[in-house]
Recover the amino acids of this structure.
Protein backbone atom coordinates (compact mmCIF):
# COMPACT_ATOMS: atom_id res chain seq x y z
CA UNK A 1 0.00 0.00 0.00
CA UNK A 2 1.50 3.32 -1.09
CA UNK A 3 0.75 5.52 1.94
CA UNK A 4 2.72 8.46 0.54
CA UNK A 5 0.60 8.42 -2.61
CA UNK A 6 -2.57 8.43 -0.52
CA UNK A 7 -1.25 11.37 1.50
CA UNK A 8 -0.47 13.41 -1.61
CA UNK A 9 -3.86 12.66 -3.13
CA UNK A 10 -5.70 13.82 -0.01
CA UNK A 11 -3.65 17.02 0.05
CA UNK A 12 -4.60 17.68 -3.57
CA UNK A 13 -8.26 18.14 -2.55
CA UNK A 14 -7.81 20.84 0.07
CA UNK A 15 -5.72 23.80 1.14
CA UNK A 16 -6.79 23.51 4.77
CA UNK A 17 -4.33 20.78 5.83
CA UNK A 18 -0.93 21.97 7.00
CA UNK A 19 0.49 18.52 7.64
CA UNK A 20 -0.85 14.98 7.38
CA UNK A 21 0.41 11.48 8.00
CA UNK A 22 -1.18 8.33 6.61
CA UNK A 23 -0.46 5.17 8.58
CA UNK A 24 -1.81 1.64 8.39
CA UNK A 25 -4.14 1.09 11.34
CA UNK A 26 -6.31 -2.03 11.74
CA UNK A 27 -5.35 -3.05 8.18
CA UNK A 28 -6.64 0.19 6.62
CA UNK A 29 -5.17 3.64 5.98
CA UNK A 30 -5.71 6.10 8.84
CA UNK A 31 -5.16 9.86 8.59
CA UNK A 32 -3.64 12.04 11.31
CA UNK A 33 -4.20 15.66 10.39
CA UNK A 34 -2.82 18.98 11.58
CA UNK A 35 -5.09 21.63 10.02
CA UNK A 36 -4.00 24.98 8.63
CA UNK A 37 -5.87 27.00 11.23
CA UNK A 38 -4.91 30.32 9.65
CA UNK A 39 -6.30 29.32 6.26
CA UNK A 40 -9.50 28.08 7.91
CA UNK A 41 -9.79 31.37 9.77
CA UNK A 42 -9.28 33.40 6.58
CA UNK A 43 -11.98 31.34 4.83
CA UNK A 44 -14.31 31.86 7.83
CA UNK A 45 -14.80 28.11 8.24
CA UNK A 46 -16.03 27.17 11.71
CA UNK A 47 -17.00 23.52 11.13
CA UNK A 48 -13.45 22.23 10.76
CA UNK A 49 -14.09 18.51 11.10
CA UNK A 50 -16.89 18.60 8.55
CA UNK A 51 -14.73 20.56 6.08
CA UNK A 52 -11.77 18.19 6.32
CA UNK A 53 -13.84 15.03 6.41
CA UNK A 54 -16.16 15.66 3.47
CA UNK A 55 -13.97 17.85 1.26
CA UNK A 56 -10.67 16.01 1.70
CA UNK A 57 -10.94 12.50 3.19
CA UNK A 58 -14.23 11.52 1.56
CA UNK A 59 -13.36 13.07 -1.79
CA UNK A 60 -10.32 10.79 -1.79
CA UNK A 61 -12.44 7.80 -0.69
CA UNK A 62 -14.84 8.33 -3.58
CA UNK A 63 -12.15 7.33 -6.08
CA UNK A 64 -10.10 4.87 -3.98
CA UNK A 65 -10.32 1.10 -4.08
CA UNK A 66 -11.95 -0.45 -1.00
CA UNK A 67 -8.69 -1.67 0.54
CA UNK A 68 -7.15 1.80 0.21
CA UNK A 69 -10.04 3.85 1.56
CA UNK A 70 -9.26 5.91 4.68
CA UNK A 71 -11.37 4.33 7.42
CA UNK A 72 -10.55 6.76 10.22
CA UNK A 73 -8.90 10.04 11.02
CA UNK A 74 -7.80 12.19 13.94
CA UNK A 75 -7.39 15.96 13.94
CA UNK A 76 -4.60 17.33 16.13
CA UNK A 77 -4.37 20.76 17.73
CA UNK A 78 -0.57 20.66 17.72
CA UNK A 79 1.88 19.87 14.89
CA UNK A 80 2.56 16.24 14.09
CA UNK A 81 5.41 14.65 16.12
CA UNK A 82 8.73 14.75 14.26
CA UNK A 83 12.02 12.85 14.47
CA UNK A 84 15.36 14.56 15.04
CA UNK A 85 15.80 14.74 11.27
CA UNK A 86 12.52 16.61 10.83
CA UNK A 87 10.53 13.71 9.38
CA UNK A 88 7.10 12.75 10.69
CA UNK A 89 7.58 10.34 13.59
CA UNK A 90 5.39 7.45 12.41
CA UNK A 91 6.24 5.35 15.46
CA UNK A 92 4.97 8.10 17.78
CA UNK A 93 1.79 8.44 15.72
CA UNK A 94 1.11 4.71 15.81
CA UNK A 95 1.68 4.73 19.57
CA UNK A 96 -0.83 7.58 19.85
CA UNK A 97 -3.42 5.64 17.86
CA UNK A 98 -2.90 2.41 19.80
CA UNK A 99 -3.12 4.11 23.18
CA UNK A 100 -6.51 3.76 24.86
CA UNK A 101 -5.74 6.48 27.38
CA UNK A 102 -7.17 9.92 26.71
CA UNK A 103 -4.56 12.53 27.66
CA UNK A 104 -5.58 14.58 30.66
CA UNK A 105 -6.09 18.26 29.95
CA UNK A 106 -3.89 20.19 32.33
CA UNK A 107 -5.29 22.94 34.51
CA UNK A 108 -4.54 26.46 33.40
CA UNK A 109 -4.71 29.81 35.07
CA UNK A 110 -8.22 31.07 34.42
CA UNK A 111 -9.39 34.69 34.44
CA UNK A 112 -10.94 35.53 37.78
CA UNK A 113 -13.85 37.70 36.71
CA UNK A 114 -17.61 37.52 36.20
CA UNK A 115 -17.49 37.44 32.41
CA UNK A 116 -15.26 34.37 32.23
CA UNK A 117 -17.20 32.60 34.99
CA UNK A 118 -20.51 33.28 33.22
CA UNK A 119 -19.19 32.17 29.83
CA UNK A 120 -17.65 28.99 31.23
CA UNK A 121 -20.80 28.23 33.20
CA UNK A 122 -22.90 28.36 30.05
CA UNK A 123 -20.47 26.35 27.90
CA UNK A 124 -20.49 23.65 30.58
CA UNK A 125 -24.22 23.14 29.85
CA UNK A 126 -23.53 22.19 26.22
CA UNK A 127 -20.41 20.03 26.58
CA UNK A 128 -19.26 17.26 28.89
CA UNK A 129 -15.58 17.94 28.22
CA UNK A 130 -13.27 19.71 30.64
CA UNK A 131 -13.12 23.44 29.90
CA UNK A 132 -9.87 25.40 30.14
CA UNK A 133 -8.94 28.72 28.45
CA UNK A 134 -7.09 26.99 25.60
CA UNK A 135 -9.97 24.60 24.80
CA UNK A 136 -10.91 24.65 21.11
CA UNK A 137 -14.69 24.93 20.89
CA UNK A 138 -15.03 22.21 18.24
CA UNK A 139 -11.95 20.01 18.44
CA UNK A 140 -11.73 19.88 22.26
CA UNK A 141 -15.26 20.60 23.44
CA UNK A 142 -17.15 18.99 20.56
CA UNK A 143 -19.50 21.90 19.84
CA UNK A 144 -21.46 21.81 16.57
CA UNK A 145 -23.53 24.23 14.49
CA UNK A 146 -26.53 23.95 16.81
CA UNK A 147 -24.33 24.74 19.82
CA UNK A 148 -22.76 27.68 17.99
CA UNK A 149 -26.13 29.32 17.37
CA UNK A 150 -27.06 28.82 21.02
CA UNK A 151 -23.70 30.31 22.00
CA UNK A 152 -24.17 33.35 19.71
CA UNK A 153 -27.60 34.02 21.20
CA UNK A 154 -26.34 33.52 24.76
CA UNK A 155 -23.48 35.97 24.25
CA UNK A 156 -25.74 38.56 22.63
CA UNK A 157 -28.37 38.35 25.37
CA UNK A 158 -26.01 37.90 28.31
CA UNK A 159 -23.25 40.36 27.37
CA UNK A 160 -24.80 42.59 24.69
CA UNK A 161 -22.20 41.37 22.17
CA UNK A 162 -23.32 40.29 18.70
CA UNK A 163 -21.04 37.82 16.92
CA UNK A 164 -21.31 36.62 13.34
CA UNK A 165 -19.42 33.77 11.67
CA UNK A 166 -16.85 36.09 10.08
CA UNK A 167 -15.73 37.20 13.54
CA UNK A 168 -16.36 33.87 15.26
CA UNK A 169 -14.03 31.96 12.90
CA UNK A 170 -11.15 33.78 14.61
CA UNK A 171 -12.42 33.13 18.14
CA UNK A 172 -12.48 29.35 18.27
CA UNK A 173 -10.87 28.97 21.70
CA UNK A 174 -12.52 29.76 25.03
CA UNK A 175 -9.81 32.33 25.80
CA UNK A 176 -10.17 34.15 22.46
CA UNK A 177 -13.94 34.25 22.83
CA UNK A 178 -13.62 35.54 26.40
CA UNK A 179 -11.19 38.29 25.36
CA UNK A 180 -13.55 39.45 22.60
CA UNK A 181 -16.49 39.60 25.01
CA UNK A 182 -14.36 41.38 27.62
CA UNK A 183 -13.50 44.12 25.12
CA UNK A 184 -17.07 44.57 23.82
CA UNK A 185 -19.47 43.65 26.62
CA UNK A 186 -22.21 46.08 27.66
CA UNK A 187 -23.50 44.13 30.67
CA UNK A 188 -23.24 40.74 32.37
CA UNK A 189 -26.27 38.47 32.82
CA UNK A 190 -27.03 34.79 32.34
CA UNK A 191 -29.80 34.41 29.76
CA UNK A 192 -30.22 30.86 28.48
CA UNK A 193 -31.24 30.69 24.79
CA UNK A 194 -34.84 29.77 23.97
CA UNK A 195 -35.18 27.98 20.62
CA UNK A 196 -38.88 28.81 20.49
CA UNK A 197 -38.09 32.52 20.52
CA UNK A 198 -35.13 32.13 18.16
CA UNK A 199 -37.15 30.31 15.50
CA UNK A 200 -40.18 32.59 15.67
CA UNK A 201 -38.17 35.69 14.73
CA UNK A 202 -39.23 37.16 11.40
CA UNK A 203 -36.90 36.70 8.42
CA UNK A 204 -37.01 38.04 4.86
CA UNK A 205 -37.13 34.66 3.07
CA UNK A 206 -40.41 33.39 1.68
CA UNK A 207 -41.21 29.79 0.87
CA UNK A 208 -41.63 29.00 -2.82
CA UNK A 209 -44.50 26.55 -3.26
CA UNK A 210 -44.45 24.44 -6.43
CA UNK A 211 -47.26 21.87 -5.99
CA UNK A 212 -47.77 21.30 -9.72
CA UNK A 213 -44.08 20.78 -10.42
CA UNK A 214 -43.74 18.51 -7.38
CA UNK A 215 -46.65 16.42 -8.69
CA UNK A 216 -44.97 16.20 -12.10
CA UNK A 217 -41.73 15.04 -10.48
CA UNK A 218 -43.60 12.26 -8.65
CA UNK A 219 -45.64 11.26 -11.71
CA UNK A 220 -42.44 10.76 -13.71
CA UNK A 221 -40.15 9.33 -11.04
CA UNK A 222 -42.38 6.81 -9.29
CA UNK A 223 -43.13 4.51 -12.25
CA UNK A 224 -39.53 4.89 -13.47
CA UNK A 225 -38.15 3.84 -10.09
CA UNK A 226 -40.70 1.04 -9.75
CA UNK A 227 -39.53 -0.41 -13.05
CA UNK A 228 -35.77 0.19 -12.80
CA UNK A 229 -35.19 -0.37 -9.06
CA UNK A 230 -38.17 -2.65 -8.34
CA UNK A 231 -39.05 0.04 -5.80
CA UNK A 232 -41.05 -1.22 -2.82
CA UNK A 233 -42.87 1.17 -0.47
CA UNK A 234 -43.96 0.03 3.01
CA UNK A 235 -45.78 1.78 5.86
CA UNK A 236 -47.36 4.75 4.07
CA UNK A 237 -50.21 4.52 6.60
CA UNK A 238 -47.73 5.68 9.28
CA UNK A 239 -47.45 9.18 7.77
CA UNK A 240 -49.21 11.56 10.20
CA UNK A 241 -52.08 13.72 8.85
CA UNK A 242 -50.54 16.77 10.55
CA UNK A 243 -47.12 18.48 10.16
CA UNK A 244 -44.12 16.33 10.96
CA UNK A 245 -40.40 16.00 10.37
CA UNK A 246 -39.69 13.25 7.86
CA UNK A 247 -36.28 11.76 8.73
CA UNK A 248 -34.90 9.24 6.20
CA UNK A 249 -31.63 7.34 6.33
CA UNK A 250 -29.18 8.46 3.65
CA UNK A 251 -27.47 5.92 1.39
CA UNK A 252 -26.97 7.73 -1.93
CA UNK A 253 -27.66 10.75 -4.13
CA UNK A 254 -30.87 9.02 -5.20
CA UNK A 255 -32.51 9.41 -1.79
CA UNK A 256 -34.02 12.88 -2.19
CA UNK A 257 -35.56 11.86 -5.50
CA UNK A 258 -36.78 8.60 -3.96
CA UNK A 259 -38.57 10.54 -1.23
CA UNK A 260 -40.21 12.79 -3.83
CA UNK A 261 -41.42 9.71 -5.67
CA UNK A 262 -42.87 7.79 -2.70
CA UNK A 263 -44.62 10.50 -0.67
CA UNK A 264 -48.37 10.60 -1.44
CA UNK A 265 -49.39 13.56 -3.63
CA UNK A 266 -51.24 15.23 -0.76
CA UNK A 267 -48.16 15.01 1.51
CA UNK A 268 -45.62 15.89 -1.18
CA UNK A 269 -47.36 19.16 -2.06
CA UNK A 270 -46.82 20.43 1.48
CA UNK A 271 -43.34 18.98 2.00
CA UNK A 272 -40.07 20.92 1.85
CA UNK A 273 -36.65 19.33 1.51
CA UNK A 274 -33.46 20.43 3.29
CA UNK A 275 -30.27 20.19 1.19
CA UNK A 276 -26.73 21.56 1.04
CA UNK A 277 -26.16 24.47 -1.31
CA UNK A 278 -22.73 23.09 -2.29
CA UNK A 279 -24.43 20.02 -3.83
CA UNK A 280 -27.95 21.03 -4.87
CA UNK A 281 -27.19 24.66 -5.67
CA UNK A 282 -24.95 23.74 -8.59
CA UNK A 283 -25.61 24.56 -12.23
CA UNK A 284 -26.88 21.02 -12.83
CA UNK A 285 -29.16 20.60 -9.80
CA UNK A 286 -29.95 24.25 -9.04
CA UNK A 287 -32.98 24.52 -11.37
CA UNK A 288 -34.46 21.30 -9.93
CA UNK A 289 -33.97 22.58 -6.36
CA UNK A 290 -35.40 26.00 -7.16
CA UNK A 291 -38.70 24.48 -8.26
CA UNK A 292 -38.59 21.47 -5.94
CA UNK A 293 -39.58 23.06 -2.63
CA UNK A 294 -35.97 22.77 -1.48
CA UNK A 295 -34.31 24.86 1.22
CA UNK A 296 -30.60 25.21 0.43
CA UNK A 297 -28.23 25.77 3.34
CA UNK A 298 -24.52 26.44 3.92
CA UNK A 299 -23.10 25.05 7.17
CA UNK A 300 -20.60 27.90 7.51
CA UNK A 301 -22.69 30.96 6.67
CA UNK A 302 -25.13 32.82 8.94
CA UNK A 303 -26.05 29.78 11.01
CA UNK A 304 -28.79 31.40 13.06
CA UNK A 305 -30.57 32.73 9.97
CA UNK A 306 -30.12 29.37 8.24
CA UNK A 307 -31.83 27.52 11.08
CA UNK A 308 -34.65 30.06 11.16
CA UNK A 309 -35.11 29.53 7.40
CA UNK A 310 -35.19 25.75 7.90
CA UNK A 311 -37.95 26.16 10.47
CA UNK A 312 -40.11 28.28 8.15
CA UNK A 313 -41.98 25.32 6.57
CA UNK A 314 -42.96 24.06 10.02
CA UNK A 315 -44.13 27.53 11.07
CA UNK A 316 -46.42 27.53 8.03
CA UNK A 317 -47.87 24.10 8.78
CA UNK A 318 -45.87 22.01 6.30
CA UNK A 319 -43.75 18.87 6.57
CA UNK A 320 -39.96 19.09 6.49
CA UNK A 321 -37.75 16.34 5.03
CA UNK A 322 -34.36 16.26 6.76
CA UNK A 323 -31.65 13.60 6.39
CA UNK A 324 -30.42 13.47 10.02
CA UNK A 325 -27.02 12.05 9.08
CA UNK A 326 -26.27 15.19 7.09
CA UNK A 327 -24.30 13.15 4.55
CA UNK A 328 -24.44 9.89 2.61
CA UNK A 329 -23.08 6.71 4.15
CA UNK A 330 -19.73 5.60 2.73
CA UNK A 331 -19.97 1.96 3.87
CA UNK A 332 -23.72 1.29 4.27
CA UNK A 333 -23.54 1.88 8.04
CA UNK A 334 -25.58 4.68 9.59
CA UNK A 335 -23.65 7.83 10.44
CA UNK A 336 -24.18 9.80 13.63
CA UNK A 337 -27.53 11.63 13.65
CA UNK A 338 -27.17 15.37 14.07
CA UNK A 339 -29.56 16.84 16.66
CA UNK A 340 -31.03 19.73 14.62
CA UNK A 341 -34.07 17.76 13.40
CA UNK A 342 -34.79 16.60 16.95
CA UNK A 343 -34.57 20.17 18.28
CA UNK A 344 -37.18 21.21 15.70
CA UNK A 345 -39.45 18.36 16.79
CA UNK A 346 -39.14 19.38 20.44
CA UNK A 347 -39.53 23.11 19.76
CA UNK A 348 -42.63 22.79 17.54
CA UNK A 349 -44.01 19.77 19.43
CA UNK A 350 -44.45 17.74 16.25
CA UNK A 351 -43.57 14.08 15.60
CA UNK A 352 -40.57 12.66 13.77
CA UNK A 353 -41.32 10.11 11.05
CA UNK A 354 -38.32 7.75 10.70
CA UNK A 355 -37.88 6.45 7.16
CA UNK A 356 -35.62 3.56 6.12
CA UNK A 357 -34.16 3.79 2.62
CA UNK A 358 -32.49 0.49 1.84
CA UNK A 359 -30.79 -0.60 -1.37
CA UNK A 360 -29.93 2.80 -2.80
CA UNK A 361 -26.32 2.36 -1.62
CA UNK A 362 -25.93 -0.59 -3.96
CA UNK A 363 -27.83 1.19 -6.72
CA UNK A 364 -25.61 4.27 -6.69
CA UNK A 365 -22.47 4.04 -4.61
CA UNK A 366 -20.43 7.13 -3.82
CA UNK A 367 -18.37 8.24 -6.78
CA UNK A 368 -20.58 6.53 -9.36
CA UNK A 369 -22.71 8.44 -11.86
CA UNK A 370 -24.94 5.84 -13.50
CA UNK A 371 -27.25 3.95 -11.11
CA UNK A 372 -27.49 0.19 -11.28
CA UNK A 373 -30.86 -1.65 -11.36
CA UNK A 374 -30.71 -2.83 -7.75
CA UNK A 375 -33.83 -3.34 -5.63
CA UNK A 376 -34.72 -0.45 -3.31
CA UNK A 377 -37.17 -0.42 -0.42
CA UNK A 378 -38.52 2.66 1.40
CA UNK A 379 -40.16 1.95 4.77
CA UNK A 380 -42.10 4.52 6.80
CA UNK A 381 -41.86 3.59 10.50
CA UNK A 382 -44.13 4.61 13.38
CA UNK A 383 -43.91 8.32 14.28
CA UNK A 384 -41.88 9.33 17.34
CA UNK A 385 -43.49 12.07 19.43
CA UNK A 386 -41.40 14.53 21.48
CA UNK A 387 -43.40 13.95 24.72
CA UNK A 388 -40.91 15.80 26.93
CA UNK A 389 -37.81 13.99 25.63
CA UNK A 390 -34.53 15.87 25.21
CA UNK A 391 -33.28 16.48 21.67
CA UNK A 392 -30.43 14.00 22.17
CA UNK A 393 -32.92 11.35 23.25
CA UNK A 394 -35.16 11.96 20.23
CA UNK A 395 -32.18 11.74 17.88
CA UNK A 396 -31.10 8.44 19.44
CA UNK A 397 -34.64 7.02 19.34
CA UNK A 398 -34.90 7.88 15.64
CA UNK A 399 -31.55 6.36 14.79
CA UNK A 400 -32.27 3.24 16.86
CA UNK A 401 -35.62 2.75 15.10
CA UNK A 402 -34.02 2.98 11.65
CA UNK A 403 -31.07 0.78 12.60
CA UNK A 404 -33.38 -1.87 14.11
CA UNK A 405 -35.44 -2.01 10.91
CA UNK A 406 -32.32 -2.29 8.76
CA UNK A 407 -31.12 -5.22 10.86
CA UNK A 408 -34.54 -6.86 11.24
CA UNK A 409 -35.57 -6.72 7.62
CA UNK A 410 -32.54 -6.27 5.34
CA UNK A 411 -33.34 -5.94 1.67
CA UNK A 412 -32.77 -8.94 -0.57
CA UNK A 413 -30.47 -7.52 -3.23
Amino acid sequence: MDLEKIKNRVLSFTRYIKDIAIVEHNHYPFAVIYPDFEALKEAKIINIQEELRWYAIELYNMEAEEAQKIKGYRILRAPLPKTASGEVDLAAIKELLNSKNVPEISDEDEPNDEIYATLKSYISTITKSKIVPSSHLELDLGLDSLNYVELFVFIEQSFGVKIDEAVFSGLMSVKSLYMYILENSLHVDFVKPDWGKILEEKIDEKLVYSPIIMSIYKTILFPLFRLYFRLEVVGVENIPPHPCIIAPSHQSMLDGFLMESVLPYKVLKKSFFLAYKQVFGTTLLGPISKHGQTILIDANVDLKHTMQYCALPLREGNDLVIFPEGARTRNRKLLEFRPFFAMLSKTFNIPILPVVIDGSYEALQTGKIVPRPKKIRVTFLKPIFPNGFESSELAKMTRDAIESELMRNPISL
Q: What stands out?
A: The first helix runs from residue 3 to 11. The beta strands are 17-25, 28-35, 72-75, 232-234, 245-248, 271-276, 294-297, 319-321, 352-358, 377-380.
